[in-house]
């Protein structure tokens, strides 16, 4: 969504020059290791895992919606060795043109105990594709098909633990209430059939399983879920694609059925057609199923067996929230911030007077700690939103939120605050053109 917690990391990559050239072996586990478990961070409904590229530790989004591995968000002071590099152009979702990139072959990738000694990677240096500021943590790239194709992968969103197994060593446990789906692959991306209900009508959908999208559901045909008679949507910035910004309409659908599981009042987006025209998609595809649905399950992805299994988790019944403020925020440049105050009592001192009397004194000094912290910047304000109505603008710096310094918040905490409940008052202190201003608004539902 347009909020800090609803970025879309949907990379439908079209390679315009060059070839993909997958390695023959790919990822594998050592002979004495049948499976591996690693922790991950769940940020904006996205799974962020530690990876190592040619000896350098990095953080990647694990994304079922991508075919190729992409590296981005690299700073000038980052030192990463890349092998067998050649120029290339790549194209993806968004309104922009193809971007310049480098293709690097023969790299060593490690995920836990799994290793690939001949991994192909695409490197994008466009600064606008640095997603770390909007995620609040360093994000260096995305990893998808090349990892999933070798293993049976369990993603336990509630415990934030990723487990992966050699297919021959994985045993499916009996699960009466689980939902299983046949995976249909197009361009190495998995699709399943689900059923939705909107505007009083039920209809089938073939959707891409896209763990790299923060949203719950995308439907490409707006006539299925958007009503102009009784307006049930608002126009919004949906996120960033490899070729630029993605816009569309946000609404809710009545139901989404995943086998025997039924989710109610599901946040749904209908992206603008021109922003998805660049995607090379499965002809029968009707949309995408994203992280805001997947996180409600333990998800078992079995690419070799062409099967996906869902088992509901403790997050299943969580309502579908969205940003009611209308603000899109990101971390800006770092600055030196005055931190905590400390009173220091110096050692006791005294002086002797002529009358053999003593004068005692304590010298107190005040010290402040200093720390580097990122500025919190407004990068988009949704029209007709509570934030827009009180005069907040793109480029404003947020200094305080409800009496607390902005740099003391995690981005996901601001997400929770802006999505908390209708009627909640938000007090901001902002900096604009050197002037400090106070703004206040009340969260209001749009759909």
From TrEMBL:
Q: Which residues form the PDZ domain?
A: 347-434
Q: Gene3D superfamilies this protein is in?
A: 2.30.42.10, Acid Proteases
Query: Which is a Pfam family this sequence falls into?
Result: Asp_protease_2
Q: What is this protein called?
A: PDZ domain-containing protein
Q: Which organism is it from?
A: Aureitalea marina
What is the organism lineage in this UniProt record? Answer: Bacteria, Pseudomonadati, Bacteroidota, Flavobacteriia, Flavobacteriales
